[in-house]
Amino acid sequence: MKQKLRLRRSRPALHFVGFVLAVAAGAVSAAGPEPAEASDTAKMPLPLKVVGTRILNSKDEPVLLRGVNAACLEWTSDGEGHIVRSVKTAIRDWGVNVIRLPLAQDRWFGKAPEQKDEGVTYRALVREVVDACATQSCYIILDLHWSDCGEWGTNIAQHSMPDQNSVTFWKDCAAAYKNHPAVICDLYNEPHDVTWEVWLKGGTITDRPNTRRGGPPRTFEAVGMQKLLDTVRGTGAKNLVIVGGLDWAYDFSGILAGRQLSDPGGNGVLYANHAYNNKGHSVETWIARMAEAAAELPVIVAEYGGSGGPQRRTGRFGVPGSASSPTGDDWLLHVMQALQDHHWPWIAWDFHPAAGPTLISGWDYTPTPDFGVFVKQALAGTLPRYTPPVGADIPTPARQSSPALSARPSSATPSVGNDITGRWKAEFDTQVGHLKYTYEFKTDGDRLAGRTIREREGETTETDIKEGRVGGDVVSFVEMLKFQDREIRIEYQGKVVGDEIRFTRKVGDFATTELVARREKAVAPPAAGKWQAEFDTQIGKQSYLYEFKVDGDKLTGRAIGDIAGTQSETEIGQGKVNGADISFVETVKFQGQEISINYKGTIMGDEIKFTRTLAGSITEEMTAKRVKEANAK
């Protein structure tokens, strides 16, 4: 989740100049006008469509969208007197080819407290912005940014999901701009805190609003993304559409799992990612997730922002933290380099001096030194290449020499490496003495997870590995070791040669060691028996006893749960065991509905490291420990 910081506000100034004639001509009826006959159609951009994972124009030429968000029409009805000039400046002086314009459904119909004209001047102002873009060969994204939980004129803010009034908005807005060559429709900004089924189809939810404006949580009937798309298409509008996934438009998993929108009669759907340094993920993790999505879906980074470079500011988006940038990696510049290398379309947030992360310092449009300068350089194709520090770098495509706005989107996927799942042993001498290590690895495509078990002078330390990757025969990961109230970063870079991995192990800036880890030929530990787990969830602490029986590769048994004092007992289904890998499904009843909980785990001695996924969207990590027979109940 991000906060869009508003540090100051200019005084409201009614923006009548420039659209009075449009009002007189009837351009502000609720249905809106067709594109004006007097518009400079020679400079209109060609309409866009999706073909496979690519964005093409009507001549089947690839188009790479790169631009800026221009906020304020979600929180004001008059654009603060700056919105048209801002858009023109972004096009003329910064060289964008797309503007994303956040809107509020209440203001579109004149429902905000300050409006007295049923939205006439607001819609005319939107029209002026659209024309300013269209006549300069610039695309414009009309983004439904703020909604109202189904109550006109109240709770005008950012909410978890769209509502029935959002359907009313798109019926009118899409009709006004149907098949306009420059207009793209962004169905709803940053859905969050619902299941993927609700995201797709709608349902009753209790809202989790952006706490800055959204008011108290309200229960209402949310509308799914498919319904909003169908509403747009129902007007006859074939315009390209954008939709963001869950976790504030960060997560693609449910879409990749089969919940793509159906759009047989339109120009296609782009799936949006909003990238900010507030997820506790390294840039490498974000790149891997983007590449996975881009291999199957047409994607766009519809928002990103941060603070980077020599003048990056503490407490701003993009400042490194222990979870996301332990190497000292510059999050913002690393993300921008990835956007360039992979040719992903992007739109930076935001071209307003008080909507952080900010691209401009004031209304003279001076670029901010820690963000705006880099975006302006990227748009011009002059941003210097950023090389991440050791331990943060990953293989990237060769840098293209073509200008930034003519590059072709990529659908490349990361290379998948050796399957090094299993246990590996190593012994070596260091400055602190002789060390024995066991590395327990679990690969998933090019991702590497697991733990290190370190023995020194009779003491054993276990650590989950971080930032693990496998590409071809190359292996890399990070071990974070606590020493005297400090965390020491240990970076491993290795090459797989048969049943050996030849590692270079770098301990901070202190020492480097060469070592060889050898694969342990071991029989997978048995899954049969009883296992206990306790873990925290969104609804409180849960305790489980799992009783497993194994017959070949089939797993049966039951899950006995204590959820906030409520007892449950469920026969497990679809259970499988394959070596150290274990999976099954627990089906529980909640408020009259059946909810599937999918478990995938790896047996590591007397522990099973599980990933537990509820209703296809909520993921939890937990560990089950074997119950010794003497203690079993």
Compact description:
The chain has 633 residues and is of the alpha+beta class.
Q: What portion of the residues fall into strands of 2 or more residues?
A: 35-45%
Rg for CA atoms = 27 Å
Number of helices: 12
As for the number of domains, it is 3
- Biggest β-sheet: strands ordered side by side in the sheet: 11-10-9-6-5-4-3-12
What's the overall geometry?
A: globular
Indicate the CATH architecture of the largest domain.
Alpha-Beta Barrel
Q: Summarize model confidence as the mean pLDDT.
A: 83
Main attributes of the structure:
Lipocalin; 633 residues; alpha+beta; 12 helices; 16% helix; 3 domains
Question: How would you characterize the overall build of this protein?
Answer:
With 633 residues, the chain is an alpha+beta fold. It has 3 domains: 20-406, TIM Barrel; 422-519, Lipocalin (Beta Barrel), CATH 2.40.128.20; 529-626, Beta Barrel (Lipocalin). Strands 11-10-9-6-5-4-3-12 form an 8-stranded parallel beta sheet. An 8-stranded antiparallel β-barrel has the order 13-14-15-17-18-19-20-21. Helix 2 (83-92) runs parallel beside helix 4.
What's the helix and strand layout?
Layout: H1 20-24, E1 48-51, E2 54-57, E3 66-69, H2 83-92, E4 98-104, H3 105-108, H4 120-134, E5 139-146, H5 164-176, E6 183-186, H6 196-201, E7 202-206, E8 219-223, H7 225-234, E9 241-244, H8 246-249, H9 253-256, E10 269-275, H10 283-294, E11 299-304, H11 331-342, E12 346-348, H12 372-380, E13 422-430, E14 433-444, E15 447-456, E16 459-464, E17 466-471, E18 474-483, E19 486-497, E20 500-507, E21 511-519, E22 529-537, E23 540-551, E24 554-563, E25 566-571, E26 573-578, E27 581-590, E28 593-604, E29 607-614, E30 618-626
Parallel strand pairs: 3-4, 3-12, 4-5, 5-6, 6-9, 9-10, 10-11
Antiparallel strand pairs: 1-2, 7-8, 13-14, 13-21, 14-15, 15-16, 15-17, 17-18, 18-19, 19-20, 20-21, 22-23, 22-30, 23-24, 24-25, 24-26, 26-27, 27-28, 28-29, 29-30
Helix pairs in contact: 2-4, 5-7
